[in-house]
Amino acid sequence: MKSKLMLVAMAMIFALSSCGGSGEKREINLFNWTYFIPDQVLTDFRRETGIRVHLDTYDSNDTMYAKLLTQSANYDVVVPSGDYVSMMIAQGMLQPLDKSLLPNFANFNADILSYIDFDPGNVYSVPYALGATGINVNTNMVQEYESSWRMFERSDLARRMTLMNDSRDVLGVALKYLGYSANSTNPTEIQEARDWVIANWKPNVLKFDAEMFGKDFASRNTWVAHGFPEVVLKELEGDNIFEHYAFLLPKEGGLIYLDNMVIMANAPNPELAHELINYILRLDVHAFIMDEFWYPTLMPDAESLRTVTVPYSIEGLFTNNYEFRANVGDAVSYYNDAWNAIMRSN
């Protein structure tokens, strides 16, 4: 009798241990921008792989970075902008990527990757989405214009134009207009850009706005808006949007924003993290995400899978002197001081 009980007990232990192995949770933690990945992507990923993704979100790089410095941070994949990638690399916060687990990395346009200066060779990061600010124009109301930041000097458009409420972006494009780098760390150049905005641009703009400019443009409260085209396009209605709308990449240049997928150095599940990244780099998935947010594609072979028309190309950014937004280090205080002066000026 004892031997039978022993056999039953051993069988139960074996069964439980087997269940524990086969039932091991396949889960990862993703930290991404708010509304920056369609729910369908994560749903389809779980259906195909069995991996559940727990999503937390943030509304700025500063918020993201502050959370990662806390002991409670337990993320596998994070999506910082390029200027923060370089900072996180320097601080040892990221682990190198295993490219053998990312075969879909080959889908990228190699020429575009060559421009990435914050992580040469993409040792620690892979691009997620690239965007840029420029000038959105209602061509019904503004028939004559040039592709230049000079637009904001036009007194005939006074109170019908908006500039972004963003110190780096506004001062960055003013720096480009004056012939400097958008990532200048020279206090004299930044002060010159400050004075230019105060004297020549601010008198003509209705407001500095990074939240409502798309709605104001769509309702014709404004006719010219500095900002991301995807924000405006989501507000415009109708099948013939581009008959009355233009997006300009000013010839003087501007700033490029590249958000990137990285794996944290302390990631609980780095192999599963690679699996998620590789899935997002699949041509059909990349095309779907870019369509959702009106971004230009980073993968040439994904273009034929797209269903929306994007108003600019990535190649156009580089031929128009655009720069990746870079980490300016301690010089950020110069930008803050200049921006405060712009906001206080009459």
Structure report:
- It is found in: Periplasm.
- The protein is α/β, with parallel strands linked by helices and 346 residues long.
- The protein folds into two domains: 25-130 and 258-310, Periplasmic binding protein-like II (D-Maltodextrin-Binding Protein, domain 2), CATH 3.40.190; 134-253 and 318-344, 3-Layer(aba) Sandwich (D-Maltodextrin-Binding Protein, domain 2).
- It has 13 helices and eleven strands.
- Strands 1, 2, 3, 4, 10 and 11 form a six-stranded mixed sheet that branches. Strands 7-6-8-5-9 form a five-stranded mixed sheet.
- Mean pLDDT is 92; it is low at 1-22.
Give the helices and strands, then pairings.
Blueprint lengths: L1 H21 L4 E7 L5 H11 L2 E7 L2 H8 L8 E2 L3 H9 L19 H5 L10 E8 L1 E5 L22 E3 L3 H11 L9 H15 L3 E4 L4 H6 L5 E4 L1 H5 L11 E4 L6 E9 L6 H11 L2 H11 L20 H6 L3 E2 L7 H13 L2
Parallel strand pairs: 1-2, 1-3, 6-7, 6-8, 10-11
Antiparallel strand pairs: 3-10, 4-10, 5-8, 5-9
Organism: Entomospira culicis
Keywords: Periplasm, Signal, Transport
Pfam families: SBP_bac_8
